[in-house]
Amino acid sequence: MKKMPPEYYALLEELQAVDFVLVELTLYLDTHPEDYDAIKQFNDMALLRKKIAKQFEANFHPLLQYGHSYSSYQWNWDDSPWPWQV
């Protein structure tokens, strides 16, 4: 497997932490749909996730398929390592 720079792992870890918060907030909001503070926190974290994902994809490779992420030229969808391989 190809060795990646420290920034790769730092961004990936940050992205995973934000994803965890988003999942937990989603579960909470399913039972507390009128909690304004939780909705604000969810929206703030969703924006942060987009920012981190954009930075990660600009520096390394796409995170999502099916038109959710752009590919550079040459096709880079098959670049490794995949996030679940590190």
Can you describe this structure?
The chain is mainly alpha-helical and 86 residues long. It has one domain (1-61). It is 58% helix and 0% strand. The protein has 2 helices and no strands. It has helices spanning 6-31, 36-59. Helix 1 (6-31) packs antiparallel against helix 2 (36-59). The model has no long low-confidence stretch (mean pLDDT 83).
Task: Map the helices and strands.
Elements: H1 6-31, H2 36-59
Helix pairs in contact: 1-2
How many whole angstroms does the radius of gyration measure? 15 Å
Tally of separate domains: 1
Secondary structure class reads mainly alpha
Order of helices and strands: HH
Number of strands: 0
List low-confidence stretches.
none
- End-to-end Cα distance, whole Å, is 9 Å
Strand content: under 5%
Question: What form results from the Cα inertia axes?
Answer: elongated
Number of distinct helices: 2
Fraction of residues in H or I helices: 55-70%
Overall mean confidence score, pLDDT: 83
Largest sheet: none
What's a quick, concise take on this entry?
This protein has 86 residues and is mainly alpha-helical. It has two helices and no strands.
